[in-house]
Design brief:
By secondary structure, this protein is an alpha/beta fold. The protein is built from 20 helices and 9 strands. Helix 18 links the parallel strand 8 (276-279) and strand 9.
Length: 351
Amino acid sequence: MRRDFCDGVGIARLLNATLVLPKFEVAAYWNESSGFADIFDVDYFIQQMNGFAKIVKELPAEIASREPFRVDCSKRKGQFDYVESVLPSLLEHHYISITPAMSQRRDRYPLYAKAALCQACYSALHLTRALENKGSELLQAIPKPFLSLHLRFEPDMVAYSQCEYSGLSRASMEAMEASRGDRKPWSGEAARIWRNRGKCPLTPAETALILQALSIPTNTNIYLAAGDGLMELGGFTSVYTNVFTKATLLSSEDFASMHGNTKAALDYYVSINSDSYVATFFGNMDKMVAAMRAFKGTFKTLFLSRRAFAELTAKGLVGEELKEELWRVHKEDFVIGRGSALPDCFCEFKL
């Protein structure tokens, strides 16, 4: 969500267009309809973007009644260019809706567009005062020092990966089947190749094994940055026992009243301020957390390698031999810290 919006700001500046604050399309994931203003401080954002890009809260009345011309950029690859492919539609229709594609041709952005994108991501996007206070309250409640772990093993996410798992509980298998729809899992040689390419999410038990291989003590304080419905969590908490979640740290009233976007925003806030950050996936939140941590100078950030784990276990490695190889694979990233900042964002742009 946050990274999509940063891209949108950069694209708007690239096209010399006015950006209308977006609506979140989240119903498919969380069945709720929170808006931009529920998460971010709108007035602060517009003020901070002054001189970088023109932002408005709402459309003028004469345009608001019209449907925008929709331009889907999400599936474009290779030589796709926004100026060449999107600007003609904007000039013709004057009001368009785009679906930005992450990292698409940023290397060709002029400096003023990169500056707008980076200003949005690192300076202008602040949580609302109420949400930041709630994040600070949550941060203070976590015993220090602590590691924030973004663990992804929800039924819909696993079903979407088209991976097969053995040894899961009946409840997890039923939840995955209910989420699969037409996306049937790979089988045979195709399943082996898919897994060895790092396409299969790590289970909580596999995550615990890798953390142990990295010599992370089992009594480490761990904040679990995860969505609702996480499967097989016992495989992790049976090894790492000092695990804290939003549900256990916030009051039941606070937690029950929160939307999915609100919970994700709190996870983001805690994760950029944690002593260490580990992610089992490389999704948009992980990229933005790593980028912000690098920007802040907190470099203890690591993405666990699903591909390495799959390749090593496929070779039959187990026990200490597997742990030694996992340590070797992750050693360099673990020692130096790994960020994934947006390009050129650490430069000081003079407009």
